[in-house]
Amino acid sequence: MEGTRVYLVRHGETEWNNAGRYQGHSDVALSPRGRQQAELLRERFRHVSLDGVYSSDLSRARETAATIAAPHGLEVNTVTGLREINFGAWEGLTYQEIVAGFPCEWEAWRQDPANKIVPGGESFRQVMERAWRAFNGIVRQEKGRNILLVAHGGSLRALICAILGLDLTAVWRFRLDNTGVSIVDCYEDKHILVLLNDTHHLETMGGPDGSGIL
To answer: Does any domain span residue 170?
Structure first.
C-alpha cells in the first residue's frame, strides 16, 4: 500500500520564543540560536529522501525550511494556511502580560480553545480548519512522495489533532519544541502518527529549550 510520508517540523527559535512572547502572525525572524538549530536539522535531513518542501509564509518557518531544502536542491513552497494562530491583541505579549490584561478572555480561551476567539485573532478551530485544508491539498498533490512541512507550534498542534481525530482540548496535552520533528504516514483510509516531537538533532546544543506554542 503506497503512502505519503510527511515530516512535520516546527521552526527554529526566535528572540520572542526566548523571551516568552506570543508571536502569532507577527513576522519574527529566527534568532542566532534558531539558525543553528535549523543547520542541525539540515544535517539530520541531508540523507533523507525529500521530494518536496512546504512552509508557512512567515519568515521563521520559511528560513528553517530553506535551510533544510538547500542540500536537496528543492525550492520552498509557501502556504498561508500553515501560519501560526493569529494571536491578535496578544501578539508581542508574555503569558503574564496576557493574564494581567485579559484575565477573562484568557481563561475562556484556555478552557475552550476550539471555539473561543483570541481578541482580534482566531480560535483553534479556525486554525485547524485552514491547516487541515492546506495539509490535505499538499498530500493530494504529492501522493506517494516524501514531503517536508515546516510550520508553527500552534498550527501544528491543531493539525495533529485533526490528523488523529482528537478534540481540540488535546492541544494542551503534548509539546512541540523548536525544530521538533514529527512524522505522519498518509494512506487513502487513514493517517498514522509515526513520530512526535523528536529533537535528538539538538543534543550537541544541550537539547530543546521547551518553548511553548508561541
So the answer is: yes
pLDDT in tens, 57-112: 999 999 999 999 999 999 999 999 999 999 999 999 999 999 999 999 999 999 99
To which H or E segment does residue 176 belong? none
Kindly state the cell numbers that stand for 206: 544541550
- Binned at pLDDT 50, 70 and 90, residue 204 comes out as confident
Which one is catalytic: 25, 47, 72, 152? 152
Catalytic residue check, 152: yes
- Edge-to-edge, what's the strand order for the sheet holding 52-55? 76-78, 52-55, 146-151, 4-10, 181-186, 191-198
Strand-pairing partners, residue 175, are none
**Model pTM greater than 0.90?**
yes
**Is 11 annotated as catalytic?**
yes
What is the domain extent for residue 165? Answer: 4-13+34-84+123-205
What digits encode the pLDDT tens for the residues 150-181?
999 999 999 999 999 999 999 989 999 999 99
**Contact indicator for 68, 150 with CB cutoff of 8 Å:** yes
